[in-house]
Each structure stands twice: as C-alpha cells, then as structure tokens.
Structure prediction request, 255 residues.
Amino acid sequence: MELKLSNPLIIFDLETTGINIATDRIVEISWLKVNPNGEQKIKTQLVNPTIPIDPQAIHIHGITDEAVRDAPTFKEIARSLANEFEGCDFAGYNSNKFDIPLLAEEFLRAEVDFDMMKRKFIDIQVIFHKMEQRNLAAAYKFYCNRTLESAHRAEGDTMATYEILKAQLDRYENLENDVDFLASFSTQTKNVDFAGRIIYDEKEVEVFNFGKYKGKPVEEVLATDPGYFGWIMNGDFPLYTKKVLTNIKLRALKK
Prediction:
C-alpha cells in the first residue's frame, strides 16, 4: 500500500559514534524523501563526527574513523539538511527514542534553527512492537519476506524501514493510511523534549519523566527545589532537554 501524504515524508536512519544522545555524534545519515505525488529520492552522507567512534559502534556498522576523516562535519551540512527537511514529516525505526533526539541535538550544536517539534514522527518499531513484538531484520523478514543483507548501514536500514511501513499498512486493517494517525499510534508518550525526559501528563501539564521527581510538575519542582535546575543544566542531559527546561523556567518567572 502506498502512503497517503499531505507533506513530504523523510524516512531516515543514523549511524553514530555510540548510543548516548547527549554526547555521541552522527557518522552517516541516509534519508528517503517521499513526496505526496509518490516521487522518491534517497541520499546518503558520511559525516565527520569530530570525535572518535566507539569500537563497539564500529563493530556494528563498520564505519571507521578513517572512513569519515575527509567527510564534512554536521555543522557544514546542517543548513542544507534543514532546507531539505523543511515542511517534511519524519519516519524511522526506533527513531522517536534515538534518531530524532540525536538529530535535534546535532542541529542545536550546529546552531541551525530547525524546529522539529512542528513535524509529525512515525516510529515503525513502535508499530511493529505493538503488532508483533521484534528487531528491524526480523521485521523485514516478517513483513516483506526478505533478508536484510545490509543491516546496520544507514541506506539499507532506511529502505527496509520504508518497505516495512508500507507492508504494515497492507497487513493491518486498523492502521489508517494517514500520517497524523500513524504518528499518534507510534508515540508512546507525549514528549515535551525529544528524549522524553519531560512529558505532558493527562492534564497537559509538563512533568518530569525520570528520577526522584518522576511524575511531578516541572514548574512545581523548580519552585520547591531550585537546585534541580542547575543539576540538570550541568549534567549529561541532551541540549534540547536543557532548552525546554529553560523555557519552562523563564515562563514560570514571567507569571
């Protein structure tokens, strides 16, 4: 089943130096841009992360420090990526927990103002786990009856992710061919920040989603324990989380 789109959809995958959203960097990005008229274009770009690649990550994706030494940095391609992604929604595999937050971090580090919160996000892994429970290679075999030969390289994973999403729409009658529905269905929490450290509760109040204040309203915690703000700002938290927290604090001060 082909997707019904009102906006272009970016299906993408990242290969990185490691798995820490706050400190690791992109070493390869591949994206498939699907336009509402069905036109498709795929691009893949190696990225110099400016930091060493963890050997465990190299073991998974096979991209070495030498392979990216002459590649552009993310800062050098950030503006062109923002232009390419402008007005698009996004889809990926485990993207809501990892790829989207890390991509947002890279844009912030590059000082390129790309407001991803305006976009819709479809996480194919969440749909898969809600429907069947398994990983990308298994999902590709299950839905497409094919073996994923190029697993853990961005372009192969990107194309497999797109094929899985279309196959999911064919298989499940209760899945609507609509980006708004798919984004909502594949979202497990209503995040305020991309990493899900701060979420909205059932009353649309921003609450912490970790630590000793989990479930507590952010404004309330900042008022009763001012040092908690400093602890987060000085800690190993994503830049976007710190940006969101600062905005909440400034808003509370204006009240």
